[in-house]
């Protein structure tokens, strides 16, 4: 059967769009940059001088804030057991540091808005391939930046900025002083903990003594000396716990590769090692029972429990100190003695 093709009807309106974009014959013209509006500092030299004075005054105010933070560190020392002294130290040191950094930020913003060159310019795109003139162009760019910012010409701003930046890091350097023990030998301090011969191993934080029969294969207990649970936080609890905290694990006795000296330091496959990483003192918290590896989550040092907690990966410099243990007449796990070496980070052992 033949079909007739109907001619387009002019009254039906435009044909549906095919979805193709139609080229614009008259492109939009670039309107250019708007007229330049001069700042008040560009119009009035007195206003410019005032802006310069404001900037370098703020930089010197930053220097004063840094000096105050250092002075407050010594004027308001943190006393043991006195929460008010800690609050006062944090408040006044923090105010000094906040003033130092805030003044630098405000001065830098005011400098850029009121003093630096305010001329608009267009930066045209160019090929990224290096040319022979690239080094000369870079030198020219730095020279122009120096001219526009006034860094080379305005000595007061330049010198006050350098002084403020140098002073701003001084409080942080001084605060590092509080990280080191004062008036004591770190090696001697970390060479002794609360552990004594016959002292029972207890669960943390309840202080419940642990029997050897309660330690199952593959388990890991965080333990403390039994008397530690009876101390309050103001009797040196946290300081003693930080040194004496121990991880207790049980392996098959034949899995332990012990030296002759340490053959008697374990009991029926149960071993106890310091929980304090020998890298920077983070708590070793993750135990993988299939590989017998202990992992420090801070910097990924790994220790092999089956071989004296020796370092098998990471930045730690020496094995975890081992606590010699045994059982008493009632079957409770007890320490044979204190650790035989300092606990904690290895850098404390430098002489």
Automatic annotation (TrEMBL):
- Major localisation: membrane
**TM annotation in the entry:** 55-76, 91-111, 161-180
Which GO MF terms does the UniProt record name? 2 iron, 2 sulfur cluster binding; metal ion binding; monooxygenase activity; oxidoreductase activity, acting on paired donors, with incorporation or reduction of molecular oxygen
- The signal peptide annotation in the UniProt record is none
Where would you find this protein in the cell?
Answer: Cell membrane
State the needed cofactors, names only: [2Fe-2S] cluster
Q: How would you describe this protein's topology in the membrane? A: Multi-pass membrane protein
Q: A Pfam family this protein belongs to?
A: Rieske
**Where in the sequence does UniProt note compositional bias of the Basic and acidic residues kind?**
1-12, 35-45
- Gene Ontology terms: cellular component: plasma membrane
Q: Which UniProt keywords apply?
A: 2Fe-2S, Cell membrane, Disulfide bond, Electron transport, Iron, Iron-sulfur, Membrane, Metal-binding, Oxidoreductase, Respiratory chain, Transmembrane, Transmembrane helix, Transport
The protein's superkingdom reads Bacteria
The UniProt annotation puts the region (Disordered) at: 1-45
Q: Which InterPro entries match?
A: QcrA_N, Rieske_2Fe-2S, Rieske_2Fe-2S_sf, Rieske_Fe-S_prot, Rieske_Fe-S_prot_C
Domain Rieske: from-to ranges: 243-334
Q: What does this protein do?
A: Iron-sulfur subunit of the cytochrome bc1 complex, an essential component of the respiratory electron transport chain required for ATP synthesis. The bc1 complex catalyzes the oxidation of menaquinol and the reduction of cytochrome c in the respiratory chain. The bc1 complex operates through a Q-cycle mechanism that couples electron transfer to generation of the proton gradient that drives ATP synthesis.
Q: Provide the family line.
A: Belongs to the Rieske iron-sulfur protein family.
This chain's protein is named Cytochrome bc1 complex Rieske iron-sulfur subunit
